[in-house]
Specification:
The chain is about 40% helix and about 15% strand. With about 90 residues, it is an alpha/beta fold. The chain is built from 3 helices and 3 strands, in the order βαβαβα. The protein has a single domain (about 1-90), classed as Rossmann fold (3-Layer(aba) Sandwich), CATH 3.40.50. It starts with 10 loop residues before the first strand and ends with a helix. It has a 3-stranded parallel β-sheet with strand order 1-2-3, with helices on both faces.
């Protein structure tokens, strides 16, 4: 739906607590690579994926998924209401 929006900037903002996984064995390398393919597909459709996470281990896998400038780490989840508007402004201006 976002890809169909007639906008010059289409930000796909993902907010997460950590590595891709689910209750049905969707974890580990499979979860990471499946997510990587979804991000690649989103970019191919003209979207700009960006991830905000509270996972302190994000540096181990998010550069592989989003690139070095495609994510931000927020160490304290209580800071999200304060920092999200700033990230949104940076990404859309």
């Amino acid at each position: 739906m976002l890809a169909d929006e007639p906008s010059s900037r289409r930000l796909l903002l993902l907010i997460t607590d950590g590595k891709p996984n689910d209750l049905d064995l969707y974890e580990g390398r499979y979860g990471v690579e499946d997510t990587r393919m979804a991000i690649h597909e989103a970019r191919r459709q003209g979207l700009r994926p960006f991830c905000v996470t509270i996972d302190e281990k994000a540096g181990d896998y998010l550069p592989h998924l989003f690139g070095t400038n495609g994510y931000a780490l927020v160490r304290d989840p209580l800071e999200l209401p304060r920092v999200l508007p700033r990230w949104y402004a940076r990404l859309t201006l």
